[in-house]
Amino acid sequence: MRRPGAAALAALLLASQLGAASYPPELSFRTVRGPRLSVHYAAGLEAQARQALDLAEELLPRLEARYGTRVPRVHVVLADVDDDPNGFALPLPYPLVQLRAAAPDGSESFGNLEGWLRLVLTHELTHVVHLNQSRGLVRVGRKLFGRAPFTFPNTLTPTWLIEGLATEEETTGTAFGRGRDADARSVLRLAALEHRFPGEDRPVLGLDDWPAGQASYLFGQAFLHDLEQSQPGVLARLARAQSGKVIPFFDDFTAQEVAGRSFHAAWKDWAARQRRAFEAEADARAARGLTPLRPLTTRGYQQLGPRFSPDGRWLAYTSGTLARAPELRVMAADGTGDRRVAERLGGERLAFTADGRALVYDEPEVEGLYRVQGGLRRVEIASGRRSWIARGLRASDPDVAGDGRVAYVERRSDRSELALIGLDGRGRRTLTQSAAETQWSGPRFSPDGRWLAAARWLPGGWLDLALVDVESGAVRELLRDRARDLEPAFTPDGRAVVFRSDRDGVSELYALRLEDGALRRLTRTLGGVRQPDVAPDGRQLALVSSSSRGLDLALAGLDLEGAPAAEPFADVLPAPATAPAPVAAQAEPYRPGSTLWPRFWI
Predict the structure, then answer these.
(1) Were 57 and a residue from 28, 34, 351, 450 both cysteine, which residue would form a disulfide, CB within 3.0 to 4.6 Å?
(2) Partners of 146 in the beta sheet?
(3) Rounded Cα gap, residues 98 and 100, in angstroms
(4) Mutual angle of helices 116-132 and 46-67, in 10-degree steps
(5) How far apart are CA 57 and CA 74, in angstroms?
(6) In this structure, are residues 96 and 89 in contact, taking their beta carbons and an 8 Å threshold?
(7) Nearest to 516 by CA among 538, 496, 488
(8) How many other C-beta atoms lie within 10 A of the C-beta of residue 214?
(9) What average pLDDT values come out for the chain (602 residues) when binned by 10 residues?
(10) What is the pTM for the complete model shown?
């Protein structure tokens, strides 16, 4: 693995993150301070800032004790200018964590979670503690030169070690985390079964091939978890040992010194054991019978969001590849005649209008250089002509009723809501009135337009289906367990909802009969399926299937009467953590002085 020098890498790292740390000039910030952290928050986010401070003051000492180090005061910045949930951390020139207030809904790559702030703070504070470490001559250099880039050896370890370590802490330190996520495990399983399991040189920064940016998180976490299981405490010892290396590039020597063998040897052995374990698991699963799927695409990477046209003749979807920008595409329902309709700059879901002539979809838009917020667009299928329905809605996951109303998810800083708007951009109305931290996703109209089925995430990791009355906004809960239940779609008669769930450890499709709550299993696969849509004749499903090359579209038969009953869900997940005690902190105006002093000289 080729790596640039320490100063060059640090400069690149800083440059890549400065844009993400830039905020609209009109934002007004305030600060709440605890014993170890300062949380700087944009106006309107004080409640979340105080929650972040409480959590961080609890998490930081625990991580410092685990890794045997102590970091200077950590600055946490909380803002709500981007609809994409994320965060980042930097150890220099001072420990900094940036958080986006917009939380995920359980359908993104983070999987289910007990709480967004606990998940993201556990991950990012692990980076702060891990990357800040220095020992021996490196520590002497830091005392002489200050927090110079070349005194942070751990920043030059492989990406899978940096991100894998944080993802491991995110998994062991919360009730969920990507290390327990069924879709994350599916990536590893399929790579092993299809003989495309990466060596340790692949899951690094800049990997384009599937699973792209997630590779370092998923493969890194699984490998490091295996190391920690065989040698408890080895991860903390590796981090401490590497932090004292004057020549930081020789990670295999550090592994040999601490773990008794090189990363290369350990990874090779782990990959072989993973393959044997997944093959045994696959054999047991196949013995129970696998659902036959008919492939519609073979591009891999990301083919997403299939939707049947109202007459059932066509399928529309979003196509992402490594060779071009994402596109909206349409094909015949048998997979022939696949063609491009228009470019799409983000988002996955789409819906046909009632006449089948246009598609409605969400698309993020940069506003005023600093904000990225989703609006709703319409594209005519025949001509590819695009137009905005409404901009700046912070919208995602649109669906269109027969009368032209568009349902979508409206994101806010502390929650999301279901909302309605006309195809002409008029009549916007917020449908639900949810408590803080509630997140909605995937709304779908019933055939008669009276109900919306949607997934609702509640604090603690409850990601379940609900019905929402389109007129009153009244909510009827359909399921209540800690399985990840989402992506509902009505059958044509409106009597059942087909949805995706990880209740057996793999993302599969199930059907819930609304009249009596009977739950039926529809698919059994090796890699999992997602994003179902029911054909207008009720006889088949369009879905997204997984392989080691990514996500593709496929068809499966649908027979609700002949489908077997679903197995009971066995909840073996850890209990969610209790909320920490509040930290007494007085809010004050943000003063940048302490962050402006030079931190190092060279």
Answers:
(1) 34
(2) 600
(3) 7
(4) 40
(5) 10
(6) yes
(7) 496
(8) 18
(9) 45 51 88 96 96 97 96 96 93 94 88 95 98 96 95 94 97 96 97 96 89 95 98 96 88 91 96 97 96 97 97 98 95 96 95 98 90 95 97 96 96 96 97 97 97 97 97 96 97 98 97 97 97 97 98 97 94 93 92 88 90
(10) 0.94
The number of beta carbons lying within 10 Å of the beta carbon of residue 401 is 22
pLDDT, tens digit, 9 for 90 and up, residues 158-183 = 999 999 999 999 999 999 999 999 99
State how far the Cα of 465 lies from the Cα of 210, in Å rounded to an integer. Answer: 30
pLDDT digits (tens, 9 = 90+) for 270-295: 999 999 999 999 999 999 999 999 99
Rounded to whole angstroms, the Cα distance separating 391 from 394 reads: 8
User: From residue 110, how far is each of 66, 484, 587 by CA, in Å?
Assistant: 24, 12, 31
> Which residues make beta-bridge pairs with 294?
555
**Cβ atoms of 497 and 490 closer than 8 Å:** yes
pLDDT score, position 6: 47
Q: Which one-letter DSSP state was computed for residue 505?
A: S
Close Cβ partners of 188 (under 8 Å, ≥ 6 residues apart)? 197, 218, 219, 222, 274, 278
Confirm if 513 and 520 have CB atoms less than 8 A apart. yes
Number of Cβ within a 10 Å radius of residue 17 = 15
Which residue's entry shows tokens 């029911």? 534
Residue 544, φ and ψ in degrees, nearest 5: -110, 125
Is the separation of the CB atoms in 221 and 185 below 8 Å?
no
Could you give the CA distance from residue 171 to residue 168 in angstroms, rounded to a whole number? 5
Amino acid at 127: H
CA-CA distance, 160 to 9, in Å (whole number)?
16
- pLDDT recorded at residue 403: 94
> In this structure, are residues 455 and 440 in contact, taking their beta carbons and an 8 Å threshold?
yes
Is the distance from CB of 419 to CB of 410 less than 8 angstroms?
A: yes
Token pair in block for residue 434: 């949810």
Pairing of strands 327-332, 339-343: antiparallel
For 274, phi and psi rounded to 5 degrees?
Answer: -60, -45
Q: Is residue 323 exposed (0-12), middle (13-18) or buried (19+ Cβ within 10 Å)?
A: exposed
Q: Single out the residue of 391, 341, 343, 349 nearest to residue 366, CA to CA.
A: 391
Burial degree of 524 (CB within 10 A; 0-12, 13-18, 19+): middle
pLDDT of residue 207: 85
Contact 244, 134 (CB under 8 A): yes
The answer to whether the Cα torsion of 525, 296, 104, 490 is positive or negative is negative
Q: Please report where in the chains the tokens 């905005």 appear, as a residue.
A: 388
Q: Which of 187, 181, 209 is nearest to 278 (CA)?
A: 187
Q: How far apart are the first and last CA of the chain?
A: 27
Please calculate the CA angle 94-218-204 and round it to the nearest 5 degrees.
60
Question: How far, in Å, are 85, 247, 364, 398 from residue 391 at the CA level?
Answer: 20, 51, 9, 14
Strands (E), 267-357: 294-295, 301-308, 314-320, 327-332, 339-343, 350-352
| DSSP code for 156 | G
